[in-house]
Every structure is written in C-alpha cells, then in structure tokens.
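Q&A log
Question type: sequence-to-structure
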Amino acid sequence: MQTILVGTTKGLLVYQMADQLRPTLPRVHFTGFSVNMVYVDERYHRWWVGVSHRHWGQKLHYSDDRGANWQEVPPPSFEGALMPDGSRAKLRQIWCMQQGGYDQSDVLWLGTDPGGLFRSNDGGETFTLVDSLWNHPSRQKPGQWFGAGSNYPFIHSIVVDPEDSDHIYIAVSCAGVFESVDGGNSWHPHNKGLVAAFLPNPNVEVGHDPHRLLISPSKPNVLWQQNHCGVYYSDNGGKDWKDVSVVGGIPYYGFALAVDEADPSKAWVIPVESDEQRVAPDLQLNVYETVNFGKSWHTRSEGLPQEAVFDIVLRQAFVKRGNLMVFGTTNGNLYYSDQERIYWNQLSAHLTKVNVVVII
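Response status: OK
Response body:
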C-alpha cells in the first residue's frame, strides 16, 4: 500500500494506493487553504505541510499519525534580516523541506521566498536563518539574485548527499545552484555549463534559473535539473553541466522533473510551450523519457489527452517512486501510472491547481 499526498490551492488530499488497484477516494485536510509545501520526514514518518493563509500568512504544521491530528509550529522568521535594497525581509512562502542525513537525526532544512535557507536542529520546533547563504557576496551584487515567477529569488530545491550529510546543494530561482561541503557554513556557485539566455551575458557565474534540482539516489555525483533554458545533468557533482535538451524542439522549457532511483541515466520531464505562453506544447500533454543521459528522448504519454490541453505541471507536482509515477496539473487534473510499462490513468479531473505531489 502506497500513499499519495497532493497539495493544492484549496487543501491537502490523501489517497491510498493498493497494488494494481485504483486509489481510494481521498481524505481532505486544510480545506480551502493553499498547501504550498508537503514533505515526509521518513526517519520518523512525520508529515509536514506549509499552508498559505491569505490573511494570516504562512503556517507550518506536522502530523505524526498520518493526518489524524495536526500540530502547528512557528514558521521560520527572518528576525530583522535585510534585503539587499535595505528593506526588511519578510516570509512570503514556504517552498520546500529536506531532512538531514541519517546521522543528523534532528536536522531539517527549509527553503523559502525570499531566498532564505533555514536550518532546524530540534526536529522542526525552531528554525534559524543560514546567514552564510543569506549574506553570500553574490546576493549583494545587482542582477545576480532576482525574482523569476516571484518578485524575489526563492529556494525551491534542497538536496542532501545520501553519503555525506554535510554535502548540500540548493537551487535558487533566480541565482542558480549552490553547493556546501561543510554543513552550510560556506556556499559556492555550481553553474558552469548552464546558459542564462535571458541575460546580456548568458554565461554568468550567478544569475541562472533552475526550475527543479534532483540527485541520483544510487549515484550521488549525478545531478539533474530542469532549467529555464533547457534540461541539464552533471556527472561530477555539479562542477560542470551538460545540456541535453532537444535543440529547437521538445523537451526544453518546463518545470517538472523525475529521476529514476536505480538508474542515474534515466529521467522524465513534462515540457511547457514557453515562458511567454505556458501551455502544453502543441496543446498536447506529454511526458518525455530518456534512458541514456539525454542522448535521446521518447514520449511516454499513453492515456494522456492530446488535443486542446492547456495544463502545465509545476516543479514539485511530478514524482516517481518505484513503478508508481504521479503528476498533477495547474488545471486540477491528476494522473498516475503504476506499471513498469508507463500508462497514465486519470485520478481526478476536478481539483484546483496542484502545487506538490509526494509518494510514500
């Protein structure tokens, strides 16, 4: 039995998935409120959600009994930290969470808008801003950290090396990928080979727009990213990036990315037409797969609609675990495939915008 957690703009839905059977009708939590972040700390089987209230701001909740009861903890605070323009930093959105390594039993990392990385050493009861990143020299230089879809830069991906808890990557829109090898005490940009086509100098060290960053669980020196300017992978821990986009075609632009747990050469993306249009390419909803580090791409779209499709898939709304793959769209459609030979089934056609999907 697997569980699918779906965070939408109107609540959290929880589906139970039995082998080869259609998922159960969902339980709904936080009805009417936008669930922007969903994370499961597998060390303790604790569910975390970041909830956005229009009047009360960002809230952070956890459950230790699979959603039967929820506890609220104080959200991260910038505690007087200043933006580069001298204005006071204020929490706008909780974007992502990542547990520390298995030798760091109480460590949690949290990424936010406006571009704050927070660390908890007490299992999420309190969070402290990581000053070494907030005060990074690149952040103080005009045009290196800036907003993409948001008015401010934001941290949407945090990756902890499964073999070294002090080795951490983050992805910032817009700034790029940064690496720490000392538990967050210092940070270095890792953007060589990326192209920022939207800047006067497309080969800048800082100023890139990764949309999603993932690590290969079986080979941690392999990283993948869906970038504003293409699909990239690195086989040397992010020191160099290789563009594996389809020149002049698909896949190229998009947000969603999934990586196989066992085979680092195998990945999937769900493209978007362009930054300007933001619809499914050719109005067809397609998933593209590579099994050879992007040397070739093939559609894996059986069961998906192929005409008049305006859906796109956001950066945290596509996930794979074992044979189960699930994604949700901006138009509230939810699809899953639970076979080695990918075939997509529609789970729901009447949700609101899907922000995030998690499988446990």
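Response note: Residues 131-134 form the longest helix (4 residues).
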